[in-house]
Design a protein that fits this description.
Length: about 475
């Protein structure tokens, strides 16, 4: 039997607000454990929550970027469950009236575009962090568990896709695209390595052609796009093997083990009824009026997909447009300024995604000193033949080092090519005169000898002659 995968992704985004969702504690990564806490985020008796307006504006921005419909009213609920890193024994979240619903995100894989539905984006608070001390860092083998509540109460947006993904590769591309959107909005730093954005995958299988959904399994602990793809691939294969050998898929939560590249059962998956949702009594409903939503909509920047489409329309290849679109804001701005200064888009993109990106990676922090006018001037020097392609890299090095404009560096480092034909003719004639055998060989049919003569001219001019002009002149003089 042939099987089809049905995959949905739940994405948790930690917002980059200054304070937590329902209290005034700072949101900060890497602080000493339990230093950014207060009675509210620790769930102490009598402490009351107050919603963070900036967090609500952030989820509105996310929802609008994903073409979601914004609910006119939205309500917070209590999600009840008991775990050590949840100090209140419930999480303030949302249930049936989330902030944003019914959106979509388009992804492209192997030249094919797929529209992935967004079921909802809702607002909640993050939990604390549990560190299991012992072999492997797993709870079952831990000698102790340490709790850090600095993260408890951090604003968290959960974005739930519809089960529209059909492969592990699609799941990876979806996660990458959504991460790019979130980062572009500036509502989160979206760093996987710091847990600012986290992915859970819901995976099931069904016979090809069937429309019914199978029993889904949720996978957790995937801390990279590669891990997500590998985990989904493994789980798809595990479920197919299980069913084809007479077993039955159980709805459960499984833990991805990076080193062994397998998933392990954690617990039976809860249903919504297990959480006993009820309306949060300490918070009133939120009202998202049209003017507020319109104001947030006006702040949405150009998103990655829009930027890629614009760059392709300007003449870039789709691959170059994708790489450039994913570059840092500074590098993208240098590209825009370079094209604005008159440089051809393809040449500007090649320099930015190549040499400038490499220079930025070598810099600490990743900031480089060059303007769009500088790069446009360098490209013009190369296109006009005044500077060779190889010498241009040296010119760029000087510009980045603060030695001046591209023309100034080329002059100071004596990198301007000799393009004056009268100068070149004299050198070419000298080289031909002292190499009579090469001339004789050429006239006997050994045309490859031209390369030798061109090389001698380049050596005589210390590499400053225009190679194309030299090549043409050598052939012309040999034919005389």
């Amino acid at each position: 039997m042939s099987w089809e995968a049905v995959i949905g992704i739940e994405v948790h985004v930690e917002l980059a607000t200054r304070s937590k969702m329902f209290c005034g504690c700072a949101v900060s990564f890497g602080e000493d454990p339990n230093t950014n806490t207060c009675p509210t985020c620790l769930g102490l008796p009598g402490a009351l929550p107050v919603p963070n307006r900036a967090a609500i504006e952030s989820i509105l921005a996310i929802g609008l970027a994903l073409e979601c419909r914004v609910s006119p009213q939205s309500v917070f609920h209590r999600k009840n469950y008991f775990y050590a890193d949840l100090p209140k024994n419930y999480q303030i979240s949302q249930f049936d009236i989330p902030v944003c619903v019914d959106g979509h995100l388009d992804i492209e894989l192997d030249g094919e575009t797929s529209r992935i539905g967004i079921e909802r984006a809702h607002m909640e608070e993050d939990t604390g962090k549990s560190t299991h001390v012992g072999d492997g860092g797993r709870i079952h083998s831990a000698r102790a568990t340490r709790l850090d509540f600095n993260r408890s109460g951090v604003p968290l947006v959960e974005i739930v896709s519809r089960p529209d993904l059909r492969s592990a590769a699609q799941a990876r591309v979806y996660a990458q695209e959504l991460t790019s959107v979130v980062a572009e909005l500036g509502v989160s730093d979206a760093r996987l390595e710091e847990g600012s954005i986290r992915f859970d995958a819901n995976v099931s299988i069904r016979p090809d052609g069937d429309t019914d959904l199978g029993t889904k399994v949720e996978i957790k602990n995937m801390n990279s796009f590669r891990s997500l793809e590998r985990a989904v691939e493994y789980e798809m294969a595990r479920q197919v093997d299980l069913v084809e050998t007479g077993g039955e898929v159980v709805q459960e939560t499984r833990h991805w083990e990076e080193e062994s590249a397998v998933t392990h059962s954690m617990r039976t998956k809860e249903g919504s009824s297990d959480y006993r949702y009820f309306t949060e009594p300490d918070l009133v409903p939120m009202v998202m009026d049209d003017q507020w939503v319109a104001t947030i909509r006006s702040t949405i920047p150009e998103l990655p997909a829009q930027r890629r489409a614009r760059l392709v329309a300007s003449g870039l290849e789709s691959e170059a447009a994708a790489v450039l679109s994913a570059s840092s804001p500074q590098l993208r701005q240098i590209y825009e300024d370079t094209v604005g200064a008159g440089a051809p888009p393809r040449a500007a993109a090649n320099w930015v995604v190549g040499d400038l990106t490499a220079a930025a990676r070598r810099s600490e922090p990743e900031v480089i000193r060059i303007t769009g006018n500088d790069l446009a001037e360098l490209i013009s020097l190369v296109d006009s033949g005044r500077v060779s392609t190889s010498a241009a890299k040296e010119v760029l090095e000087g510009v980045l080092g603060g030695e001046g404009s591209a023309s100034q560096v080329a002059e100071e480092r004596d990198l301007i090519q000799i393009t004056d034909v009268s100068q070149l003719i004299a050198v070419v004639d000298d080289i031909i005169e002292v190499n009579p055998k090469a001339v004789s060989d050429y006239r006997s049919g050994e045309t490859k000898i031209v390369g030798f003569l061109v090389g001698q001219v380049m050596k005589a001019t210390m590499g400053k002659a225009d190679p194309k002009a030299v090549n043409d002149l050598v052939r012309e003089r040999l034919e005389d």
